[in-house]
Amino acid sequence: MEGEASIIITGNYEIGERTYDGWVFNDQASLLSEIEEIVKSKKVGASIMYIILLLLALLAIFDTQVLSVFRRQKEIGTYIALGMTRAEVVSLFTIEGAMHAIFATGVAAIYGIPLLAWQANKGYALTPGTDKYGLAIAERIFPEYSLYLIISTVLIILIAATIVSYLPSRKIARMRPTDALKGKIQ
């Protein structure tokens, strides 16, 4: 209608190309293109933060394994002197690091699942100034955690922690049993 505004609800399906004099149909993708651009730019920043936090966690695991190997030299020498092969000792320490990662996953799930469920239920309250962004944003945003996201994150961390646990354990393979029993590392 001339000089009037109309709302046309199309449901969850495309109504196709409609042409009326003075009216241009915009589909959902074109109407939400600015928000999609913001989400894409935020994903890049979030990925960088995710990588930095993952690297910090892996550094802590690496340092812990190095300390464990250093402090348990006599134990390692005893294992080798009693007949364990070097590969078996390396795999023992690698499995130990992987088990620590699994234990940490369980502990994180104890507090993480209720926290994430609460956040998904209550959402994040936005400050009153967000209406000045030029976009229609609700007062609360609700995160969505997919099963794929959770499983892939846990698997990435478990695999990375296992690899990082293996790296300091390689030094064990070069140890002589007599030096290890004396508490010396080459």
Task: Provide a descriptive summary of the structure in words.
This protein has 6 helices and 4 strands; from the N terminus they run E-E-H-H-H-H-E-E-H-H. The protein is mainly α and 186 residues long. Strand 1 and strand 2 form a beta hairpin. It has one domain (34-182). Helix 2 (33-71) packs parallel to helix 5 and helix 4 runs antiparallel to helix 5 (147-169). It is 63% helix and 4% strand. A two-stranded antiparallel sheet has the order 1-2. Strands 3-4 form a two-stranded antiparallel sheet.
Briefly say what this structure is.
The chain is mostly helical and 186 residues long. Helices cover 63% and strands 4% of the residues.
How are the SSEs placed, and which strands pair?
Elements: E1 19-20, E2 23-24, H1 28-31, H2 33-71, H3 73-81, H4 86-122, E3 124-125, E4 140-141, H5 147-169, H6 177-182
Antiparallel strand pairs: 1-2, 3-4
Helix pairs in contact: 2-5, 4-5
Total helix count? 6
> How many DSSP E strands?
4
Can you give the helix content as a percent range?
55-70%
Most strands sheet: 2 strands, antiparallel
Number of self-contained structural domains: 1
Q: What overall form do the CA principal axes indicate?
A: rod-shaped
Radius of gyration equals 28 Å
- First-residue to last-residue Cα separation: 87 Å
